[in-house]
Write a structure and sequence with these properties.
Helix 2 (about 35-45) packs across helix 3. This protein folds into two domains: about 15-70, no CATH class; about 75-103. The longest helix has 27 residues, at about 75-100. It is mainly alpha-helical. It contains four helices and no strands. It is about 60% helix and about 0% strand.
């Protein structure tokens, strides 16, 4: 994530298998042609296409669309942080107050 000045202000660590694609889901991608074979498992599981030939055709069409338009970002981590920020700050403030009382 970046602040208003464009500086990195946080980090997210992803465990496998999300470490291979999580960043691209979060921020999206520019237009590029991904290998259709890389989309095959997603096409079969998410779209329920079990016929191999049809799955390859759909994977190619999706790859072609990504080549034209890229992929939009979902910004799930950013949304989660924004929704939780006040609570996170409150937790830190509570802990700092506890440390202050113990000193």
């Amino acid at each position: 994530m970046r602040d208003e000045a464009g500086r990195t202000v946080g980090a997210v660590f992803l465990a496998p298998p999300a470490d291979r694609y999580g960043l691209f889901v979060e921020v999206g991608t520019r237009p590029h042609f991904p290998p259709p074979a890389a989309l095959l498992g997603w096409v079969q599981s998410r779209l329920g296409i079990s016929n191999d030939r049809q799955a390859r055709q759909v994977a190619f069409l999706i790859a072609r669309k990504i080549a034209r338009e890229g992929t939009p970002g979902r910004f799930l981590f950013q949304q989660a942080l924004e929704e939780s920020e006040q609570r996170i700050v409150a937790i830190f403030e509570e802990e700092v107050a506890q440390i202050g009382m113990q000193a």
